[in-house]
Specification:
By secondary structure, this protein is of the alpha/beta class. It is built from 15 helices and 13 strands.
Length: 392
Amino acid sequence: MENEKVAILSVLKPVDDIRAYQKIAKSITSNSKNVTLIGFEASSNSNKKNSDININFIELFTSKKNKNRLGLWRFFAGFKVFDQLLRLKPTTIIVCAVEILPFTLLFKLLFSSKLNAIKLVYDVQENYAFNILYQDNYPPFLKKILAFLVRSFEKLSSSFIDLYLLAERFYLEEMPFLEKTNYVFLENKFLVDDLIYTNSTSSDYLKTKEIKFIIYGSFSKTYGTLEGILFFKQLEKELEKEGFSATLLLAGYCLDKEYSEKIQEVTKDTNSIILLNQTIDKSIAHKILLQKLQKTDFVILPYLFNKSTQNCIPTKFYECLAYQKPMFISKNSLWQSFINPLNAGLFIDFDRLVVENEIQNSVKKILLQPFYTKPINEEVWRFDREILRKVI
């Protein structure tokens, strides 16, 4: 009997993306399932080499040919994906990008039958309409039109989608039509890998008087990377007054050329700020980021307020909780209600220049306040593979 074929589709995300590959593909692959990931070129060749024998990769889009994320190639991306579906003939399709949803729906309508039913799964990683409306990725005159079209199609296609994977619980409030669908919550919790996860030991920076900070992952205006760097610079000055030295590791990448130039400008000739990736335009393997996270003392997460992300719990929160790394986080009522009871971080207003008193208070808490004073149940931060195995 031929193995069941599963296709996991994306456009901008690399085929070895942590959610699509590490969490979804590795959870559902088995001797009876062959999984093919289709999307952007892999962030690490080692992931492809070390992948399960039943997992395959098709890198349709590359950084050389498809460097501009808003280029004309995005219009044709769905056609290229559809062509791959015709070749693969999968029986289960997991869609991780809204722009290819129409093409997968067409494929299902054309080829699904009672004898050969095609299961369509929509992995809602983001509120795509809100992203278009409230982030600065599109011209103002296009935002409302695109957001309306995206939301309208999501609603119309809901009756043809067999299962929704929801990355955030708040999506039920932001997208009420989902309440009538078949869905499960697949939150972006931390995936434990024995190769990269070890229980964190408490830092000795109070003895060495050397404090390590990190900003990692994607660098962008929305994520407040420049504000985070400014905050560190102010913090460093205050720490020096207390006899402490500080370093900031920038471990990540930026797709916005203009913004990456600004980052390089504010960090040049600064010995205390280290760029892990000097060019900043290529993503860094997630395993490397986690290795750097384990070696740091504090994590700066300077997300700026945006309606598209205000109700989301970032993956980095779960990663920091897993490694018990104290966080400096933007003020947000949802995040504060989640983090404060765990005594896992401090909240800063990154939307404006941080006032001197707030910097001084932050230094006092770094030097005097203990973090992670209570044990945290692993269920709070740990990803559960069984959620997927029960439904796919």
